Amino acid sequence: MIMIKRLHKSVGVYIDMGNQFLKNISPEWMWKSGHYSGSSLRIGIPRMFFYYIYPDLWETFFGELGMEPVVSRPSTRKTVEKASQISETEHCLPNKLFDAHLAEVVGKVDMVFVPRVLSTIKNHLSCPKFGPLPDAARADIARGTEVLSIDIDENKRPLSKTLLLLGKKLNIQKSKTLSAIKSAFIAMESANKKMVLLNKKKGKPRFLLVGHPYVIHDNFIAGPILSKLESMGVEVELISFADDTPAKSYILWSTANKIYHKLNTLSSEDYDGVIQLTVFNCGCDSMMIDTYRQLVKDKNVPYMYLMVDEHLAQSGIDTRVEAFIDSLRWRG
Amino acid sequence: MTYMAIPNIGNYTIALATAVESLGIKAWASTATTPEALKLGIAAAPETVCLPLKAHLGHFIEADRAGVEYAFMVNSVGTCRLRYYRHMIEHILKDLGLKIKIFGLGFDGFKPPIVRHFDPGPITFLKPLFHTALKIKVIDKLEVAAWRTRAIEITHGDTTLLMNKLLVELSESKTMARTRAIRKKVAGCFAEIPVDKEKKPLKVGLVGEISFLRDKCLNKNIEYILGSQGIELRNFFLLGEELKNITRIVFLNQNKRKYLSKVADRYLQCTVGGHALDSVAHSIHCADEGYDGMIHLCPSGCMPEVSVRPILKRVSKDKDIPILEMSYDEHTCDVGISTRLEAFADVLMERRKKQPARPSRGEGN
Question: Does residue A1 surpass a pLDDT of 50?
């Protein structure tokens, strides 16, 4: 790093006038990324939202491009404490955690990566809170640090093209970007397969845990519940978001649509119960929970929903999960 | 007589009630959600949904109790929760066992189902619609005049009294000729109110979520409180302007949002949803025009408006304009709101005293 900075002073700024994507990028940053892509350019990735929506994709992609991805540590109680100090008070819990994760990587890295996730499936939309994320980061927490952002909008272009554009924006050779995309997709596929099952056994009660990907895979939000379920020895399946074919429904939020589809096609033979995990102040869930409950009720499958906020306590979760599972055992 | 319940959007409900007459039926509405309706809505809705849904739901429950058969709910094509309002309200009302039937504006073939159901003749259908457009224009004019006069009136309450009188007249007006006559006399009536012309009132812009900008019950009558503090307001939701924008999009392919996103480009590069982009763009605009402050209203946990708050804070710092963020939930009480607004007004007044030579670029030209 030190070497790069010194070089930058002496060599000056390299500007590739042919590349129209460079118009919006500051010269200093362009130089850093441009012809020294093999160097240790550190890119910070907050472990929230898009990190869980596209698991393992970003580290692999940036790693293959010759950068050093710095992912923030899994969220803990400390992250939440930090979040409550720095974040906007009325954000939902994941958004607060996002701010804390962002604050963790800012200062340690040369730039942070915050994409604008507008749509993850074609003809569908993301939560409106994802739209201004990079702008909010620039305005507040990541101020002074370069924020690398790109629109992920499946309605306009598929993800692979978005990644290609990102490589172009970073001024990296096309062939290198293509191979990085290939290995990133492979990594994402295997990560998606890995994440779905807990306590794989046969003959035990099987539960389905539903919720947004960044809720059910987050250490702070879902950790206590998953560890409790694990210690009780019940087989739990986490809902998978890997399948890209959307179901036809009135719901346009992509994750809500997938949860709806999963619960709609659920049968009482496959699962003994459904646990819905939601977070405080989540706008999507507040509209959808009643629909989900009705769907599951119609299938005669027991349903419980747990709302997690900043004051999550292990004992409270323990009591509720134990009571739910015990009542199911008595049900026979 | 068949009645149809329509959602409340402040004084504009008067105009929309005329639009319902185009279907050959009468409207059941009020210019503000009643506290009783809000209570009913809060009891029936899930706890975590946003307050406008509870207000609308309560309004429809109240309508059903009054024996109204039909209701109308707006459709939204945006990204926020408003899109699912009608679906959710329908379900909740069904669960409650109420028989009120809810229509949207969705098209089913050539005619929307709502028109097909009532099947009015072409003249019955079109005439009230023109009348509605005229009434919306008059209400726009009334609102703008009221913001200006209320801040400088000598006797408190004069403007509000006159405004209420004219609104009643307007709601009773059945012919376009009469509405035109009202439009003509608006300026004269407001000019008759004794005002302090020397006074230079503080100028504050109101931005945020639309039902909070318009509904007096939800926003705890914020326009009146601020006006009686001697603050000249500008509320950035005028239905006339919105409709004008929609016609422009349809016929001229000119969207005001394009201009707004150009204004806000430095701070926000996407439209977010709801009126979040408008909030940011108008705040920047007002700062440039020399406003003394901004007030940002939204229901607690509003998805688009809350997500742009960090950006508004940055605008506030960069442009040196105070922005008061108010969020409302069902426990918000009138006194709490008026205390905060009074404190804000005091801060603005002190601020102005300290920097008397603050250039106000908007006033000169």
Answer: no
Look up residue B248 and give its DSSP letter: I
CB contact B332 to A (< 8 Å): no
What is the C-alpha to C-alpha distance for residues B155 and B194, in angstroms, rounded to an integer?
8
Contact A61, A180 (CB under 8 A): yes
Q: Is A256 helix (H, G, I), strand (E, B) or coil?
A: helix
Residue A59, domain extent: 2-194
Nearest to B311 by CA among B350, B271, B268: B268
Summarize pLDDT for B9-46 with one digit per residue, the tens. 889 999 989 988 888 888 998 888 999 999 999 999 98
pLDDT tens track for B105-140: 765 556 777 887 888 888 888 888 899 999 999 999
Output the CA angle A21-A23-A26, nearest 5 degrees: 110
What is the distance between the alpha carbons of residues A112 and A104, in angstroms, rounded to a whole number? 11
Domain that holds residue B143: 127-199
Residue B148 and residue B95 share a domain: no
Q: Inform me whether the C-beta atom of residue B96 falls under 8 Å from chain A C-beta atoms.
A: no
Longest Cα separation, chain B: 64
ipTM surpasses cut 0.95:
no
Q: CB distance from B293 to chain A under 8 Å?
A: no
Distance from CA of A137 to the nearest CA of B (A): 8
How do strand B26-28 and strand B3-5 relate by DSSP bridges? parallel
Smallest CA–CA distance from B300 into chain A, residue: A90
Angle between helix B13-20 and helix B158-172 axes, rounded to 10 deg: 0
pTM over 0.80: yes
Domain shared by A142 and A202, yes or no:
no
Is any Cβ of chain A less than 8 angstroms from the Cβ of B79?
yes
